[in-house]
Design goal:
The structure holds two protein chains of two kinds.
Chain A lengths: L1 E6 L11 H10 L6 E7 L9 H7 L2 E10 L2 E6 L3 H6 L9 H10 L3 E4 L9 H8 L7 E6 L6 H12 L2 E5 L12 E4 L6 H9 L3 E4 L6
Chain B lengths: L2 H8 L5 E6 L2 H10 L5 H4 L33 E10 L8 E16 L2 E13 L5 E12 L3
Antiparallel strand pairs in B: 1-3, 2-5, 3-4, 4-5
Classes of the chains: A alpha/beta, B alpha+beta.
Chain lengths: 211, 144
């Protein structure tokens, strides 16, 4: 099963894609995606319900978050009320250690995203501020990264034995699916995704050829 | 001050108000500049003559920010505008535009931390009908 684990819709302040348009693009282009996860910036989008789109397009559409820490950005899968109450999703200076701990405590999964990116990626801060306990998975294929950034993320993952995911980080319709994550097992909902990420039966992939 | 503190102090109250008369030549000129060709936007004799949806984005108040708002303009750049149209603006309308700070938040990006200041201008016609809401983002970057 192939899911794009990192995407943004108009619910994010810098997103330009409507979720329906993502679905239409995937369908029209016959992209090899079984679904995608909306990781909206600094919030959990509790308001929108995409189940009708799931049914119409035969895609799995899950909701997650991208929060900001002093070590860069982090994806949160399995956001629930407890996690929303644990720290301020809108704060751009959350301690990474706290985000990792609270995610684990609340049954969610925290994944540093685009870790090779300057200033908002974990690797640069790892060098200057030191290692942080609790990192288990990182995003090694990010569709918005520049040359060398995904490579640095992969290098760190190899070095520290972290598991790897991929996602497009799309903010516009045409970028969905640039990178993704392949799961060996079927995923039907966010709980299933969280369970899958707790294991090791997944890998970051490039599902479609890039221009 | 933090973004939340700034918003608490300066947000959600009108700090500027302007009045203007909408002239047909202004509507036609803007439509033409936009490359518009539909007669309802370019021909004052059209029965449905009105301004193009983005017309009110060109209107500015007498000030961008409330008096005393702490900003360093040399660190700022324009983050673009958005408009939500409610009713058409028509020739002869007497429009009132009211400015407020709608939102202030921080985010981090490749270039570092940025403070987003969302200036909102609401426009009303002479009947008090709400014509449009225009949001303009001013972005202040952190110093390197």
């Amino acid at each position: 099963m192939i899911l794009d684990l990192h995407s943004h819709s108009v619910a994010s302040d810098d997103g330009r894609a409507k979720v329906e348009n993502y679905c239409q693009w995937i369908s029209k282009r016959a992209l090899p995606l079984d679904g995608f996860v909306l990781t909206e910036h600094r919030q959990f989008d509790d308001a929108n319900d995409y189940r009708a789109l799931e049914d119409e397009f035969g895609l799995l559409i899950l909701k997650a978050s991208e929060v900001e820490t002093e070590y860069g950005h982090v994806l949160l899968f399995g956001v629930n009320e407890d996690l929303c109450a644990a720290f301020d999703f809108a704060d751009i200076r959350n301690p990474l250690s706290r985000v990792l701990e609270e995610a684990k405590r609340c049954g969610a999964v925290a994944v540093p995203c685009h870790p090779g990116r300057p200033k908002v990626g974990m690797c640069a801060h790892w060098e200057t501020k030191g290692a942080v306990e609790g990192v288990e998975i990182v995003e090694t294929l990010n569709g918005g990264s520049r040359e060398g950034e995904n490579e640095q993320a992969d290098d760190y993952a190899e070095r520290y034995g972290w598991r790897k995911i991929g996602g497009s980080d799309s903010h516009i319709v045409s970028h969905i699916g640039r990178f993704a994550t392949r799961f060996e097992d079927e995923i039907r909902d966010i709980d299933g995704l969280v369970r899958a990420l707790g294991g090791d039966r997944f890998e970051a992939i490039i599902p479609i050829a890039r221009d | 001050m933090t973004a939340a503190e700034l918003l608490a102090e300066y947000g959600d109250h009108v700090f500027d108000e302007i009045d203007l008369d909408i002239e047909p030549d202004s509507l036609v000129g803007f439509a033409t500049a936009c490359g518009e060709t539909q007669p309802r936007f370019t021909d004052p004799s059209d029965g449905d003559f009105q301004g193009v949806p983005s017309y009110l984005t060109r209107i500015h108040g007498t000030r961008s920010l409330p008096e005393g708002f702490p900003v360093e303009m040399h660190r700022c750049f324009d983050g673009g505008k958005s408009i939500e149209c409610h009713l058409p603006v028509r020739a002869g309308d007497k429009v009132t535009g009211r400015s407020e700070i709608h939102d202030i938040f921080e985010k981090s990006g490749r270039s570092g931390t940025m403070l987003f200041i969302v200036h909102r201008m609401n426009f009303y016609n002479q009947q008090g009908d709400h014509l449009a809401t225009v949001d303009w983002r001013l972005i202040q970057r952190e110093m390197d």
